[in-house]
Amino acid sequence: MNPIQTVKDWAKDIVDLALVLIAFGVVVYIIFGPEQGWYFSTITQNLIAFINEIGSNSLAGIIALFVIIWCFAKRN
Asked: Which range marks the domain in which residue 26 is found?
């Protein structure tokens, strides 16, 4: 296998792991509340701030959200 493809595969695996950890952090925050540690509350606060920012920018926020979703979409 070519080295560039290997690095791309590693990067995809790291992004997939990060997304799983973010989802886990949000679920823990929702179930146990903000006092369960800095990691989970920081993830959720950043996510809420991001969603609020998208909401306050209306059309530009929606376009940015679609670009982000497109970047993270699974392609074969």
From this structure: 3-72
